[in-house]
What we know:
- With 230 residues, the chain is an alpha/beta fold.
- The chain folds into two domains: 3-133 and 180-229, Spore Coat Polysaccharide Biosynthesis Protein SpsA, Chain A; 139-174, no CATH class.
- Helices cover 30% and strands 21% of the residues.
- It has six helices and ten strands; from the N terminus they run βββαβααβαββββαβα.
- It has helices at residues 29-39, 53-61, 81-94, 114-127, 187-193, 217-229; strands spanning 3-8, 23-24, 27-28, 45-49, 101-104, 131-137, 148-150, 156-158, 176-186, 201-205.
- A six-stranded mixed beta sheet has the order 4-1-5-9-6-10. A two-stranded antiparallel ribbon has the order 2-3.
- A hairpin with a 2-residue loop joins strand 2 and strand 3 (27-28).
- The two termini are 33 Å apart.
- The mean pLDDT is 96.
Amino acid sequence: MKILGIIPARGGSKGIPRKNIKVLGGKPLLQYTTEVALKSKLLSKVILSSDDDEIIDAAQNLGVEVPFKRPKNLSGDKSQTLHVIKHALKYYEKMGVFYDAVCILQVTSPFRSVDLLEKAISKFIKNNTDSLISVLKVPHEYNPHWTFKKNKKNELEISTKDDILISRRQDLPEAFYRDGSIYITKTNVIQKENSLYGDSISYIESDINFYVNIDTQKDWKKAEEILKKI
């Protein structure tokens, strides 16, 4: 399967200014993701999508191909990853180059391993699902069968609409949340369904000990603490 690895990294960042190239543990944040991506034997090509010249230069110095500069209209706070990915695919299609799937690796999840990435891609190919995402288990106290939402009467009802609340923790079904580290999606799902997920989603479980999704200064401090353990 021909898979395009895309590292999205725009220049604007309000929570942590210049986050993508800020130094973490002696190297720019971007480098953690580029190192893993370039070591993958299952990604056909790895590129960076950015609107920022400094980030582009940093990526190229790290050995990552930057075939284009991302348009400003796809680089704002509200720009959707889906549109960024479609832009990259369209760029290659104009050159007569087509990919079966896309693997999105976000810079804000720096501690994924090469082993995890290769296992994720292998599972995606084997399962032949529309997509695969990396996940972590939802702690039992936040399991959707134990959480509530307001109804039209401004009263609480079980989020899953169960008639009876499951009483024992042992009886709760496993629940997961996406951790943002790895997204893999078939190209036809992206283009025809305008979705990064499709109808069938397989998953790979990440290691909670290395989980961080850097968006705030608090997240950055957490990343620094994780580095001390690596």
